[in-house]
Every structure is written in C-alpha cells, then in structure tokens.
C-alpha cells in the first residue's frame, strides 16, 4: 500500500499506526516543512532512516532522548545490520535488549545516570542466570565490577541512586527487590515478544 503525503503529521498516532510494508512520500516545498516532517518522525519513532543517491542508508537518531537511548538504538540497528545470517542467538539478543530498554523505561529509571547503565548490564546477566541474585555481592557485582571498573559498594550506590531518582518506584530503595521485579518483568517482556525465555 502506498500513500502520498504532503506536509507532516500533526498527530503522533496517525504516523505510528502505519503498516510495516507501507511506503511514504513526503512532498515538501521549503526547509521548514522538511524540518517539521523529520521532527515528527523522530518524535514518533526516535529514529529515521534516509537513503542517499548511491543507496546507502543513513540513520538519524533523536539525541533529545538521552545518550543511553542513542547508544541502545545504535546497538540494536548494528545487530540487525551485521553481516551474516540472522541466527537464533542474534534474534534473542535483539529481543532481550529491546525488552530491557522497555522495562527500564517502565520503571522510570533516568536514562542519563550511570546507575541505569549498570542496571541494564545487571539485567542482561540476571536474564542469563537468575541464580546470581541469591548472593549479589559475591557473584553478580563482581561481573559488573570488571565491566565498569568499580568496587561492589560503588556499583550498589550508583544503582540505589538511579532507583531513588526513579519517577515510578515511589520510595522503594532496596536494590535487590527492584532488580528482582525488573528481572521478572524482563522475562515476561521477552516471552511476549520472542515467545520463550
């Protein structure tokens, strides 16, 4: 299905309700219309792909959403564009990264804090091995210690600060309680998207 469009969408839900196989043509007559059109797409999806004359794709990512968002979008797109056949493990990694981003957003952790980046890494490890939760200071934090070059106390302090600054956790400061809830929610999200854990 092809639609011809002029100008840009003023309502976000009109743009986001497009079908995946739909092709869009935006006819613009001035620089302001171009900017409004691109801005509407960035606000809606966070990323826009543009093709040049040689057929090479260039992606614009909405940097207004924060550095962690930009890095996660680049990582997701790089995984998809990597050469070679799409293996089962790569599909799972893409779904897991997307699920973790969704869960972090649901729990309201600020994307600009180092504690949120640490939580993202912790959720990757906990998804692979939930048993690491039983003795976090001896088994889980040392994995992150090597990755972030921090002592376990610094890791916990950064994570606790991110949890404290959350807009949706309302006073919950116990790191392991929040990590357990986030791990469970990540597994639910992966099952919904991927079909299994």
Question: Describe it for me?
Answer:
The two termini are 35 Å apart. The protein folds into two domains: 2-45, no CATH class; 85-194, Winged helix-like DNA-binding domain superfamily/Winged helix DNA-binding domain (Arc Repressor Mutant, subunit A), CATH 1.10.10. The strands form two sheets. The protein has a two-stranded parallel sheet with strand order 1-2. It has helices spanning 12-16, 31-45, 67-81, 88-106, 114-128, 136-148, 152-164, 175-194; strands spanning 2-6, 23-27, 47-51, 57-61. Strand 3 (47-51) and strand 4 form a beta hairpin. Residues 1-21 have low confidence and may be disordered. It has 197 residues and is mainly alpha-helical. It contains eight helices and four strands; from the N terminus they run βαβαββαααααα.
Based on the model shown, name its key terms:
197 residues, mainly alpha, Arc Repressor Mutant, subunit A, 2 domains, two-stranded parallel sheet, two-stranded antiparallel ribbon, 8 helices, 10% strand, elongated, disordered N terminus
What is the gist of this entry?
With 197 residues, the protein is mainly alpha-helical. It folds into two domains: 44 residues, no CATH class; 110 residues, Winged helix-like DNA-binding domain superfamily/Winged helix DNA-binding domain (Arc Repressor Mutant, subunit A, Orthogonal Bundle), CATH 1.10.10.10. It has eight helices and four strands; from the N terminus they run βαβαββαααααα.
